[in-house]
């Protein structure tokens, strides 16, 4: 009986150690996912800001408020909103198609 109890205690100890290791691995993976997501977002922001600057005649002269005012003016246009909605709709359809082909 004592031998069986010792064996069960040892199994419990091993299981607890594995659980602790799994929790640490989960934390590391979560951190890595956050880092990759942050890195991806930073890349997207830098790329798109660069695209915007190609259309600004003198980007160093304009303030952040000037650029925001310009973007607000542009994006309040009905034609721009229609085009934006069309682009979003097309991109979503393409993603659905890709997901259907690669489950």
- Structural class assignment: mainly alpha
Largest sheet: none
Helical amount among residues, as a percent range? over 70%
What share of the residues does DSSP label as strand, in percent?
under 5%
Rounded to an integer, what's the Rg over CA atoms?
27 Å
Total of helices: 3
N-to-C span: 52 Å
Low-confidence stretches are none
Mean pLDDT: 93
Shape descriptor reads: elongated
DSSP summary, beta strand count: 0
- N to C succession of SSEs: HHH
Features:
mainly alpha, 3 helices, 87% helix
Structure at a glance:
By secondary structure, this protein is mainly α. It has helices spanning 2-55, 64-75, 78-101.
Describe it for me?
This protein has 103 residues and is an all-alpha fold. Helices cover 87% and strands 0% of the residues. The chain has three helices and no strands. It is elongated and about 85 Å long. The mean pLDDT is 93.
């Amino acid at each position: 009986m004592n031998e069986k109890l010792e064996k069960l205690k040892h199994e419990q100890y091993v299981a607890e150690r594995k659980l602790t290791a799994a929790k640490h691995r989960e934390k590391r993976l979560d951190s890595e996912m956050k880092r990759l997501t942050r890195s991806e977002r930073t890349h997207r922001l830098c790329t798109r800001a660069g695209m915007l600057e190609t259309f600004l005649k003198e980007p160093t002269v304009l303030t952040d408020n000037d650029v925001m005012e310009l973007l607000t003016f542009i994006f309040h246009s009905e034609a721009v909103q229609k085009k934006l909605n069309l682009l979003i709709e097309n991109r979503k359809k393409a993603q659905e198609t890709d997901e259907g082909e690669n489950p």
